[in-house]
Structure prediction request, 389 residues.
Amino acid sequence: MENVIIIRFGEIFLKGKNKKHFENLLEKNIKNALSVYECEIEKSHNRFYVAKYDKDIETNLIETLKKVFGIHSVSPAIKIPTDITKVAELIANSLPNVNTFRVTVKRADKTINMTSTEIAGQIGGDILQLRQDLKVDLHNPELVINVDIRENKTSYIYYENVKCYEGMPVGCSGKGMLLLSGGIDSPVAGFRMAKRGMQINGIHFHSYPFTSLQAKQKVIDLGQIISSYCGHFPLFVVPFTKIQQAIHKYCKEDFMITVMRMIMVEISERIAISQNCGALITGESLGQVASQTLESITVTNSRVKNLPILRPLIDMDKTEIIKISKDINAFETSILPYEDCCTVFLPKNPVIKPKLSVAEAEYNKIIDLPQLIDEAINNVEVVKIKNKR
Ligand code: ATP
Ligand code: MG
Prediction:
């Protein structure tokens, strides 16, 4: 008898010929995630198992596994050599404190000459003999005793099925550059693309001393949270002060944010390409603010020539985004009251439906912009954020 954690795969089940590749990547990510713990990963028949660990760290292992994308669900289980006559005896004295139960059997081992229902009936009957305080309730039991009889003469008994995020193993869908502000939306956007298997790098525009060092630290802290889902997270911090001052000096007030966003994505694309990223990712949601109308998005897109801009939150309401932000433990950090570079030099009435030709004319008013952009890129600071788990 041994404690193990059953790990079930998510969508990679569907991957046909490439399944092996996805499984290997998932295994690597699981091993990386659990590398700080003493345990082993075993693989058998479309599942992984965590084994050879101390029961005391089981909860930590499960919490860590919940953050590994590609896992459908996990269950802490007891592993035994298959022997139907012994199951009841083994579990009768270690059942959680309940009054009613049912037994559910899954039988992959077709050499056993009984149906799953017959086996469940037998085990249930045996338990009742040993524990007369308990009752069977097939429809609404307090406890479901799952018995999984596998092909290799091994059975697993478990009571709990912990749902995970599913998604795809990080690394199977290339790499994206996340435009990370200190707000609520962009960390959620990064989380959602990582969930689809993207490795994530971050870029942050910082306008020191107009924005504080605390504001920058807040973004690093958000990067730390993102890295707990996607492994290491290099953050490129771009000094943006001179460019913002130039925008302020040369552009019409209502177009300042529009032009700022044009330059942000332009710089982001250049850094993304230098890091072999295949996409930019933003936390934009249609119509949320003036810079996120269809017209504004059209203008922003016009400055990015070679990469797609992924906007995973485009159809989401703020309340939906906040729910995910809370779920991934980013919310408390996101709402710390430090200013973002979008909020300094903020025009009172930003244009809501900018015309591309006018936006381009405003952009072109900035003297020496190519040099300012080069200078910003040359002075990027790279913060290497590692997953602490
Ligand atoms: P968030 O909550 O992510 O800050 P927001 O609702 O405040 O978003 P905007 O300020 O318009 O929206 O920003 C839209 C998107 O642009 C952000 O989600 C983010 O991807 C990017 N962005 C904004 N400010 C910055 C910044 N200082 N550095 C990097 N990216 C930024
Ligand atoms: Mg913002």
Q: What stands out?
A: The longest strand covers residues 71-81. Residues 181, 183, 340, 342 surround magnesium ion (ligand 2) (CB under 6 Å). Residues 175 and 276 are 7 Å apart (CA to CA).
